Amino acid sequence: MLKVYNNLARSFYSGLFLFYKTLVISVFEVPVFPLPLSHDCMVVPERNTDLVELQRRIAIYEDEAAYKELFLRFYGPLKKFAIGFIKLAEPAEEIVSDVFVEIWKRRTQLMGIDDLKVYLYICVRNEALRKAQQLRKTATVLLDDFTYQFTSHYTRPDEAMLNSELIQKIQAAINDLPPRCKLVYKLAKEDKLRYKDISSILQISIKTVDNQLATALKKIASAINFRLKKDSSV
């Protein structure tokens, strides 16, 4: 049993290294820049061509099928993102729906947005923070107020070998992360956002994103190693 767990642990650490290596590459692609308050000053040279095509079809042809595809692609992740701030599903659904309503209302202006995915996250963040302030009757809501429970997202072939018990240990380690670390990890690992995207969405520097993710990965690896050692001694 110990040998099996050690092999699984090595596989997990290898996955963490590859994931971290991939993310580190993006640190050197662009300089640190402050959060743009409007899409007019967003500068994101790398663009998802598939998403840009949807954006073009909506803006130029008022294509409702493209709009529906955009909605279905991002509704789930954006809802989870909003819930992390306001803790309630129904208001989160309303926030995301309202953002998409505004997208359709202003569809003729969409081609002026450099990165529609980042823009959607920023809109949802702004509305979620405003709603959280209303619900809690507080002046400020911090990133450290973010809460989120991870569920399994190990779907790649190299991750299929992880048994359910180890996956539960990984999820527990992630859910034990400090709120800010967990938020950065969620956006990077689950939502597949780049360093510069996370920097824009959360209003933090790319260096802070790097540090938070490094801390998260170290804590996860440490927790998994501790749990494996503990289990092997039983």
What is the level 1 CATH name of the largest domain? Mainly Alpha
Strand segment count: 0
Largest sheet: none
**Global shape:** globular
Q: Could you estimate the helical fraction of the residues in percent?
A: 55-70%
The CATH topology of the largest domain turns out to be Arc Repressor Mutant, subunit A
**Protein structure class:** mainly alpha
% residues in beta strands: under 5%
In sequence order, what are the helices and strands, one letter per element?
A: HHHHHHHHH
In whole angstroms, the N-to-C terminal distance is: 11 Å
**CATH-derived architecture of the largest domain:** Orthogonal Bundle
Rg over C-alpha atoms, rounded to the nearest angstrom: 19 Å
Average per-residue pLDDT, rounded, comes to 77
Features:
234 residues; mainly alpha; Arc Repressor Mutant, subunit A; Rna Polymerase Sigma Factor, Chain: A; 2 domains; globular
Structure report:
- With 234 residues, the chain is mainly alpha-helical.
- The protein has two domains: 1-30 and 143-234, Arc Repressor Mutant, subunit A (Orthogonal Bundle), CATH 1.10.10.10; 34-141, Rna Polymerase Sigma Factor, Chain: A (Orthogonal Bundle).
- Helices cover 67% and strands 0% of the residues.
- The chain contains nine helices and no strands.
- α3 runs antiparallel to α4 and α4 (89-105) crosses α5 (116-136).
- The longest helix has 27 residues, at 206-232.
- The model is unreliable at 1-6, 8-13 and 15-46 (pLDDT under 50).
Topology:
Blueprint lengths: L1 H24 L23 H13 L2 H23 L2 H17 L10 H21 L27 H12 L3 H12 L4 H8 L3 H27 L2
Helix pairs in contact: 1-9, 2-3, 3-4, 3-5, 4-5, 5-8, 6-9, 7-9, 8-9
